[in-house]
Design a protein that fits this description.
The chain is mostly helical. The protein folds into two domains: 4-109, DNA polymerase, domain 1; 126-203, Intergrase catalytic core (hpI Integrase, Chain A), CATH 1.10.443.10. It has nine helices and three strands, in the order H-H-H-H-H-H-H-H-E-E-E-H. It has helices at residues 4-19, 24-45, 59-71, 77-95, 102-109, 126-134, 141-156, 160-164, 197-203; strands at 171-172, 178-182, 188-192. Strands 1-2-3 form a three-stranded antiparallel beta sheet, with no helix packed on it. It is elongated and about 65 Å long. The N and C termini lie far apart (56 Å). The model has no long low-confidence stretch (mean pLDDT 86).
Length: 205
């Protein structure tokens, strides 16, 4: 067994799952990052992933991997930065557990996110919002469902993942109608339901 394998396992089971209680989406994103990185390092070093060590993931290798993401896989700078954040998180975890690789770890952590222009996210006007909510055909069950989903999302601002995870137990339609959800970073949120949303939810069944 190399020094990398127990660090990777501990990073996922101890750091992400136990300490941070990261969401399934975060864990899956980190898993995908290291799957890509280990595959890249295998091709670069001709060593199987089970034989790779921390020294094989040095700063030049990480830099080449980040370049590979953009030039070969066609990832955006934003995606590159997300992958780098996962790598830096692993190496910060490794810094306290593998001090013999301190120099390698320090050089990897010196990699910085890439700057890029962010698109300005515009908003819908009242007319556009009304047209969007009215678009589903409410004579069908799927149309009523889509109408309620759109109406709820417009008035609560929930992310799509938060909206689709809502259950009957998460929605209170009595006095002070509201919806509860667990959002980004495992934070619980309670959002009021206004402007006819409770009535639409009750009639959607």
């Amino acid at each position: 067994m190399t020094d990398l394998a127990p660090l990777l396992q501990g990073f996922f089971t101890d750091k992400l799952m136990l300490q941070l209680q990261a969401s399934q989406h975060t864990i899956a994103a980190y898993r995908d990052t290291f799957t890509l990185l280990l595959s890249f390092a295998e091709r670069r070093t001709s060593r199987r992933p089970s034989r790779l060590s921390i020294a094989d993931l040095d700063a030049p290798t990480i830099g080449a991997f980040l370049q590979h993401l953009e030039t070969v896989r066609g990832n955006t700078a934003a995606t590159r930065n997300v992958r780098l954040a996962a790598i830096r998180s692993l190496f910060r975890y490794a810094a306290l557990r593998a001090p013999e690789h301190a120099a390698v770890i320090q050089r990897v952590l010196a990699n910085s996110p890439k700057r890029f222009d962010r698109a300005i996210v515009d908003y819908l006007t009242t007319t556009e919002t009304d047209a969007l909510v009215a678009a589903p055909d409410r004579t069908t069950w799927t149309g009523r469902r889509d109408h309620v989903l759109l109406l709820t999302d417009v008035h609560t601002g929930l992310r799509v993942s938060e909206l689709t995870r809502l259950t009957l137990q998460d929605v209170h339609l009595g006095s002070g109608p509201h919806g509860r959800c667990r959002g980004n970073g495992c934070k619980d949120r309670c959002t009021p339901l206004i402007s006819g949303t409770p009535v639409s939810l009750a009639a959607a069944d």
